[in-house]
Write a structure and sequence with these properties.
Helix content: under 10%
Number of helices: 2
Largest sheet: 6 strands, antiparallel
Order of helices and strands: EEEEHEEEEEEEEEH
Structural class: mainly beta
Number of strands: 13
Strand content: 35-45%
Oligomer: single chain
Radius of gyration: 16 Å
Strand order of the largest sheet: 1-2-10-7-12-5
């Protein structure tokens, strides 16, 4: 796998090596050894999958301390715009985001470290989205910030009149009004 650094340290795009021939293609979607060497040592404990239709926007989600999660995400059918927002107080990139298009055609994966909010918008008719997490889902620790927050400067590439959000995501606070428990000086991986 090739690791592509982004403008925010720790947030990386992973490009697998794809082997194609007349039968189709093959690639290794995850290697613990290679991930630990090239990205960071990590132990994923839960895999999730969602299916959504065009215009669905999910996020911007995170889990609060002490159950904060890293995520390794990919789109196995269709296409999504995937976004990670730095929510670590004191970070030089606080409030900034990285957005990447993930699709069944490009096979890219996106690693979102602890201390980031995560969300995506479905750009295709249907999208099947998979993600690995390094902490189990803890409903009591669920957190999120508003997807439609102009201060974040995210172009979701979905007209607002076509956007489909959950009731919970519609009422989340904007970043400036959120109480966050992540600190840039704290090592979230200890």
């Amino acid at each position: 796998m090739d690791v592509i650094n982004t403008e925010i340290e720790g947030v990386v795009i992973i490009k697998p090596r794809i082997f194609k021939d007349a039968r189709g293609y093959f690639f290794e979607s995850f290697s613990q050894r290679e991930f630990d060497e090239k990205v960071r040592p990590i132990h994923f404990v839960q895999d999730n999958e969602s299916m959504s239709t065009y215009g669905v926007m999910r996020g911007l989600h995170y889990q609060k301390m002490p159950y904060t999660q890293s995520k390794l995400v990919r789109c196995v059918k269709g296409c999504v715009l995937d976004v990670a927002v730095d929510i670590r107080a004191g970070s030089p990139t606080f409030g900034r985001h990285v957005a990447v298009e993930l699709s069944e055609d490009n096979h890219l994966q996106f690693f979102i470290p602890k201390g980031f909010a995560h969300g995506f918008a479905v750009l295709s008719d249907v999208a099947v989205f998979q993600y690995k997490c390094d902490e189990f889902y803890a409903p009591q620790s669920e957190g999120g910030i508003q997807l439609i927050d102009d201060s974040l400067g995210i172009d979701w590439r979905i007209p607002l009149d076509k956007a489909i959000l959950s009731e919970k995501d519609l009422v989340r606070s904007k970043l400036a009004d959120s109480t966050l428990d992540f600190d840039f000086s704290q090592d979230l991986y200890k």
